[in-house]
User: Which sequence fits this backbone?
C-alpha cells in the first residue's frame, strides 16, 4: 500500500476513562487523505478526547491510532510533525497585526521566506486588506480565519479543528466554513469536531456520530439520509429562514466583503 493509499488518520478500538467515567468505549474510524471528516456529537460525547489522543496530548487506555501513517503511542515525534491543531478559541496575539502573527509563527517554525508565506496565507484567507491592522480590531470570524492560517504554516498534511465555530455569530461561522473548504481544496486532510448539525452537513465528505463513547454511524451525508424512511412529497409554502433573512440584510460574506463595519464595531 502506497503512502497515498494509507488513511491520513486511522483509529481502532480507542478507549479512554476518567476514573469511573468511560468516555471512549471502542471508537473506530478512518479519514481519507485530502478529505473533510466531521466527528459529530453533543457536549461531553468525547470529541475533544479523541482529538487530544490523536495529538499525543493524552494517552489512550486501549486501542490504537495513527496520523499520517505514524502510531501516536510509539512514534509521537513524527505524529507531531504531521499535524496542526486549532482549538475552540483563537490562539492569536491581539497586540500584533495579522501579518506579524503569521511571520512570527513562520520564523518559530524556521520556514524559508516567512514574509512571503505570510502574504500567501493572508490572500488565501481573504485577510490581505486587514494585514497591517492589530488583531484586536478583527471580528471573531477574522480571528478564527487567521488562527487557521497560522496552523497551516509549514504545510502540515493533517489539521485538527476542534469545534472551530464555537461562540461565533452566523456571519463569522460562514466565513470559517469557507476557510475550511479552502483547506481541503489545497489537499489538507481535515478532522473537524462539531456539535452543529448544519456545520457537518455543509462541510464534511464523511460524518461520524459519536454517542455514549462509540461511533454509532459513519458515512456520507447521502448514506446517512438513507437510514431514514423515504421523504414524503408535500406542497407547502416555503418561508425564508432566519439565516436567509440575516444574510439578505447584512450582505455578502465572501472574500471581497468590506471590514469597515467590523472595525467600527470593535471601537
Assistant:
Amino acid at each position: 500500500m502506497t503512502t497515498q493509499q494509507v488513511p491520513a488518520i486511522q483509529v481502532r478500538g480507542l478507549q479512554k476513562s476518567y476514573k469511573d467515567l468511560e468516555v471512549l468505549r471502542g471508537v473506530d474510524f478512518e479519514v481519507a487523505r485530502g478529505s473533510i471528516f466531521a466527528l459529530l456529537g453533543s457536549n461531553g460525547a468525547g470529541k475533544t478526547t479523541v482529538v487530544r489522543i490523536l495529538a499525543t496530548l493524552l494517552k489512550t487506555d486501549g486501542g490504537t491510532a495513527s496520523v499520517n501513517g505514524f502510531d501516536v503511542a510509539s512514534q509521537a515525534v513524527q505524529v507531531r510533525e504531521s499535524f496542526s491543531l486549532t482549538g475552540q478559541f483563537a490562539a492569536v496575539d491581539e497586540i500584533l497585526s495579522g501579518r506579524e502573527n503569521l511571520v512570527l509563527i513562520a520564523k518559530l517554525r524556521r520556514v524559508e521566506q516567512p514574509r512571503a508565506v505570510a502574504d500567501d496565507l493572508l490572500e488565501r484567507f481573504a485577510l490581505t486588506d486587514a494585514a497591517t491592522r492589530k488583531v484586536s480590531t478583527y471580528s471573531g470570524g477574522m480571528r478564527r480565519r487567521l488562527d487557521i492560517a497560522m496552523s497551516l504554516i509549514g504545510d502540515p498534511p493533517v489539521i485538527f479543528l476542534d469545534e472551530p465555530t464555537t461562540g461565533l455569530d452566523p456571519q463569522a461561522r460562514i466565513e470559517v466554513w469557507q476557510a475550511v473548504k479552502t483547506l481541503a481544496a489545497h489537499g489538507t486532510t481535515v478532522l473537524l469536531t462539531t456539535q452543529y448539525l448544519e456545520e457537518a452537513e455543509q462541510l464534511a465528505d464523511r460524518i461520524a456520530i459519536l454517542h455514549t463513547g462509540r461511533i454509532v454511524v459513519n458515512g456520507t451525508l447521502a448514506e446517512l439520509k438513507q437510514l431514514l424512511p423515504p421523504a414524503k412529497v408535500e406542497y407547502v409554502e416555503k418561508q425564508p429562514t432566519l439565516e436567509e433573512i440575516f444574510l439578505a440584510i447584512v450582505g455578502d460574506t465572501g472574500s471581497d466583503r468590506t471590514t469597515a463595519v467590523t472595525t467600527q464595531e470593535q471601537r
Remarks:
- The chain has one domain: 9-228+239-266.
- The CA atoms of residues 102 and 118 lie 5 Å apart.
- The mean pLDDT is 85.
- Residues 9-228+239-266 form a domain with the Rossmann fold fold (CATH 3.40.50.300).
